[in-house]
Amino acid sequence: MMLHSILKISDYKYIIVLVSLLTLGGCTTYVEPIRSTAAELPYKTQVINELKNLPPAKNKIIVSVYKYKDQSGQYKPGSSGISYSTAITQGATSMLIKALQDAGTSKWFTVLEREALSNLMNERKIIRNTRKQYLGSNANVNSTLPALLYAPIILEGGIVSYESNLITGGMGARYLGIGGATEFQRDSVTVYLRAVSVKTGEILSSVNTSKTIFSVKVDAGLFKFVNFKELLEFETGFSSNEPPQMAVLEAIEKAVYNLVMEGVLNDVWSFENPELAKPHIEKYIKMKNKYFDIDDKTAKIIDVKNAGHSNPAS
Questions:
Q1: Is the overall model pTM greater than 0.85, yes or no?
Q2: Is there a contact between 9 and 230 (Cβ–Cβ < 8 Å)?
Q3: Cα–Cα distance measured from residue 167 to residue 188, given in angstroms and rounded to the nearest whole number
Q4: How far apart are CA 1 and CA 175, in angstroms?
Q5: Which of 214, 212, 210, 232 is nearest to 223 (CA)?
Q6: Are the beta carbons of 215 and 242 closer than 8 angstroms?
Q7: Mean pLDDT of 247-261
Q8: Rounded distance, CA 72 to CA 254, Å?
């Protein structure tokens, strides 16, 4: 009966469309519109090259990172309205450590393990007990574990906000049953990072960066009577969502870059070759000039421009 109904369609174009849809529907096991890819190298953000291309520091800086926390308090929206999954990645500490190692291709920071310090101390304790048990009186100074490095600077901060639906919108059109529509949404994540002197407790430098997160949805459809009591309906579409954890990674990398540059401008640390670093400093000051009034001689902020605009690291 269904075949007889289809054959009554006078326009052969609709027959082709319907047969194609039936064919795809019966071959979902074999046809994959989007295939899974193999594991690949880490995601490259838009600022990673800027971070890696920093000229070397005059002296590598030893830093400790205990915990870079999610302080936003945001949870993922659920279909039932209640969700216990956080909207922000809980692995920001690992991201910050990797960004610090990437700065100047590992020529800026020596990062000490502090997040899993208890595991490190337990392992050292196992080594000492094992040596004592099996070496006994034969143990000498050379078998003693060296002292752990200590850091003159601790890096603190966290992900302070995750704002969703900052901007939403869309548009669509339909004519004689044929049309399409698009929708978009913009979210934002903000991170803070500060360098603290262990000796005095003074905050040597503090920066913050923001990163926007875009989501787009596009769909199209056909809704048309092709014959008396015969209706053709077709829908298609796709959506693209920028992963929040990738936005967090980019914001953290930009924060590390800004921290390095602010430290240089505040004479906390310096580049090994000032002449080689001059273009980088000029570029950073030019970027700051978009948002702040800067003293050309001291590179210090005089006043804030366009306070309603987003942060320069957006």
A1: no
A2: yes
A3: 10
A4: 31
A5: 232
A6: yes
A7: 94
A8: 19
Query: Please, what is the end-to-end C-alpha distance for the chain in angstroms?
Result: 60
The full 3-state SS of the chain, as one line of letters, equals: CHHHHHHCCCCHHHHHHHHHHHHHHHCCCCCCCCCCCCCCCCCCCCCHHHHHCCCCECCCEEEEECCCEECCCCECCCCCCCCCCECCCCCHHHHHHHHHHHCCCCCCEEEEECCCHHHHHHHHHHHHHHHHHHHHHHCCHHHCCCCCCCCCEEEEEEEEEEEEEEEEEEEEEEECCEEEEEEEEEEEEEEEEEEEECCCCCEEEEEEEEEEEEEEEEEEEEEEEEECCEEEEEEEEEEEECCHHHHHHHHHHHHHHHHHHHHHHCCCCCECCHHHHHHHHHHHHHHHHCCEEECCCCCCEEEECCCCCCCCCC
7-65: pLDDT as tens digits: 444 454 555 555 555 555 555 444 455 677 777 777 788 899 999 999 999 999 999 99
Nearest to 105 by CA among 45, 155, 64, 55: 55
Count Cβ atoms within 10 A of the Cβ of residue 221 and give its class: 0-12 exposed, 13-18 middle, 19 or more buried.
middle
For residue 295, name the pLDDT band (cuts at 50, 70, 90).
Answer: low
Look-up of token digits 């659920």: 78
Distances from the Cα of 229 to the Cαs of 118, 236, 252, in angstroms? Answer: 73, 23, 59
